[in-house]
Input
Amino acid sequence: MTQGLPSIAQAKREAKRLRGALAEQGQAISHAKALEHIAHQHGFRDWNAFCAKMRDHPARAWTAGGQVTGRYLSQPFAATVLAADQISPGWFRLVLELDEAVDVVRFDSFSNLRKQIRVDVGPDGYSKERTSDGRPHIELDP
Output
């Protein structure tokens, strides 16, 4: 049952997508009902049991020397983890050495290439910091 267990944030996003899909079909349900349905899909009796198991599930962890891929400022990258320090449960401060430099400026008139970045990421692999369009600065692939 714990194989492929999502994070709480992922489960909540699943519930939100379910509500949207059902609403398009003319079936409105509450967020609580959607959460219960997601819990049942994962084999749990209710949301509370599912949530407790997700909290007990070990957080995603990164280690120095590991490889990661994702998007930094919406640009795809591959990198080596130079350092990974847990700063709180599920949250890590990573230092990444990018395989190819990423241009962090969106203007054609000049560039600012980054080859190494330091970022704090949560259990879902996203940073808290957001760009002006609302996207996380970094999104690591699972």
In short: The beta strands are 67-72, 75-88, 91-103, 113-121, 138-140. The radius of gyration is 18 Å. The chain is about 25% helix and 30% strand. The CA atoms of residues 89 and 109 lie 42 Å apart.
